[in-house]
Amino acid sequence: MGLLPLFTSMLLFSWTTLNAALKITKVDLSIEPSAAVYRDTNVALRCKAEVLTFGTEALNRVYTIYKGDSVIYNKTTSSSEDLLYHLPQARVSNNGKYKCKISIMGEEKASEAATLTVEGMSTPILRFNKANITEGESVTATCLALGETGSLLFSFYDNSKEVENARVTSNELTFVPKGVGNHIIHCSYLVFVMPNSFKSQTSNTVTLTVEELSIEPVLKISPQDNVYEGDTVNITCSVSNVTKDYQAGELLLSQDTELLKSGKTSIHVNWTAHARTPMLTIKCRLYLRDVVKVVNKTISVSELFSVPTLKISALEVFQEDEISLTCRSEKLSYDRLEGEFFIYSLEPFDYHMVHKGNGVFIGKAKTIDFNYTCTVAAKGIKKKSKVLTIHPKVPVSTPKIWVSGSAILGRKVEIFCLSDTGTPPITYTLWKANKQNQIAIVHEFNKAANFTIVINEPGRLNHYLCKASNGNRTPEQSDKLQTAVIEPMTEAYLMVVPDVDDISEGHTVILICSFLGTPPVTVRWLRDSDDLNPLKTTTTNINTTSYEFVVNKEHTDNYYCQAENRANSVESNKINLVVGMAMWKKLLIPGTIILVVSSLVMVGFILFTRSRRGKRERAAELSVKPASPKSDDSLTVTLTHDTEVYNAATDAASFCDDKEGRVTNGTRGSVASLPADISNRSSYSIPATV
């Protein structure tokens, strides 16, 4: 390893070790002898720091003193003693907040702020370079603020009023006092310690005497009485009491705001009088240094003729109308005019207007707003009239007439009338059968007049029309209203073909809906079981329509129609439609019954036949039982007809061995025919011999 890297590593290690063993625990700033002192007190700021270090080696300390946010003092020392910053003979400019910061080996810490307040300011002293001056002469004043430091601003006062532009950072001011006589002057100053300022006491007063200048302006006017416009007036403006040492000033001669002439010692003009106002003021001004002296006189000037008035012949003007403009002066001084001719002119020049003499101009009105003025000239005097603004009106166009919505018999309806062009206000009149009905005045552009009427007659509203006017012209008339009156639906009737009693399955049924009301009419066929979904909807321009369909049993229901036009809707009567059975079904029922009955009879006969046969077989197989205890040789057979039960008795034990009534001795038995008289008995007995 080289020596340089080794040395650098050692220094870095030492720095890190020392920095780790260094701590600034506390920094205090105190003000001595106190934080509030009087002017001229010697003040010291003491900065004290408590520092913890490793070892006894002295370390460099960097102290920084702040006033507000500004650094006012820096010091680097290895001493551990307190730092003292001195403010000898403290002034108000030393007021403010101070703090101290210490930095050691990169470790920093600052104190809390301490505020110093210094009271007391020196009383200013005022001095002048002259005690007596003449009017317009300047003087220099000096305001002394002994011993004060910092940023100062001086003010000077003349008779308690601050001298204009007298606030200066310098303590000297050169100015010209205004007005003659004695001027009482004093001064004061401000010390700025941002963001505050401190004002001093008032200085001593000095009396300054200003003497008036001996020279004056002189104004002469001839003639001054019985002056008419156009007359020549001699005016002289001069300076009186001019001495050899007079420093030439400036003379200005003016009439109101009009400058007539300027000069040094004397001015003369031959002025042509005018009569813009009844009284004219002539002024002669003398400007000498900063002094202004003025003298003025007034003269009365009579008019030869008054300012002309421009008038239009018509009270209202329409575009392209013939118009006449007249330019006149109402007042004339005939004794001074002496037959002088007047010259009239119209401005601006317009080829539309022709001069017909004696101030009359005729021509046609323009299509836009326009301005005119006229000028009258005589004996070198010209006078212009005020501006005449002409607003040519736009004539109304032929109005249009219409209704809002539908015109329904028996109801109110709004009729509108509008001219597409025309200068408002426009008067609209509604007429009915050549009689004035209603009037409406519209004050806005392109806005229709509306009239409300009640419709009491059917047909059309062609007996209504409207007229429009916006001036003294023949009103423009609209066409007649062509709107048709809608008659509300009054009734609807439903009928069915064929008759309801003759309707059966498979038949074609026609529902016919008739109604009264203005077409077009929308008709809907409905049934009670589904009145929200029409069977059919149609629109017609006649008063009847139909709905045709083939029926089945499911069409049995109440049917009706609904008729609706632009006025209202009505419902018809209801028809109960009962769909009967088809004819082939009616014929099928008796045949089916006969077939069923025949089948039942056949089945019954077969069953009966089988039953009789079974009876005979069972009778032959009857067991033989003794008829009575008295006779062992007799066999008694008892047949019960109704119950088909057979009883046999025999004296001996016997039995049937086959289905044909064969007995045990092998002899075939037979049943003889029953006598007619007992064939219908419920029971009978037959003796038998074995």
From TrEMBL:
<dbReference type="InterPro" id="IPR007110">
    <property type="entry name" value="Ig-like_dom"/>
</dbReference>
<protein>
    <submittedName>
        <fullName>Platelet endothelial cell adhesion molecule-like</fullName>
    </submittedName>
</protein>
<dbReference type="GO" id="GO:0006955">
    <property type="term" value="P:immune response"/>
</dbReference>
<keyword id="KW-1015">Disulfide bond</keyword>
<keyword id="KW-0732">Signal</keyword>
<feature type="domain" description="Ig-like">
    <location>
        <begin position="488"/>
        <end position="576"/>
    </location>
</feature>
<dbReference type="InterPro" id="IPR013783">
    <property type="entry name" value="Ig-like_fold"/>
</dbReference>
<feature type="domain" description="Ig-like">
    <location>
        <begin position="392"/>
        <end position="482"/>
    </location>
</feature>
<feature type="transmembrane region" description="Helical">
    <location>
        <begin position="587"/>
        <end position="608"/>
    </location>
</feature>
<dbReference type="Pfam" id="PF13895">
    <property type="entry name" value="Ig_2"/>
</dbReference>
<feature type="domain" description="Ig-like">
    <location>
        <begin position="217"/>
        <end position="338"/>
    </location>
</feature>
<dbReference type="Pfam" id="PF17736">
    <property type="entry name" value="Ig_C17orf99"/>
</dbReference>
<dbReference type="InterPro" id="IPR040878">
    <property type="entry name" value="IL-40-like_Ig"/>
</dbReference>
<keyword id="KW-1133">Transmembrane helix</keyword>
<keyword id="KW-0472">Membrane</keyword>
<dbReference type="InterPro" id="IPR050488">
    <property type="entry name" value="Ig_Fc_receptor"/>
</dbReference>
<dbReference type="GO" id="GO:0009897">
    <property type="term" value="C:external side of plasma membrane"/>
</dbReference>
<dbReference type="GO" id="GO:0004888">
    <property type="term" value="F:transmembrane signaling receptor activity"/>
</dbReference>
<dbReference type="InterPro" id="IPR036179">
    <property type="entry name" value="Ig-like_dom_sf"/>
</dbReference>
<dbReference type="GO" id="GO:0007166">
    <property type="term" value="P:cell surface receptor signaling pathway"/>
</dbReference>
<keyword id="KW-0812">Transmembrane</keyword>
<keyword id="KW-0325">Glycoprotein</keyword>
<feature type="signal peptide">
    <location>
        <begin position="1"/>
        <end position="21"/>
    </location>
</feature>
<dbReference type="InterPro" id="IPR003599">
    <property type="entry name" value="Ig_sub"/>
</dbReference>
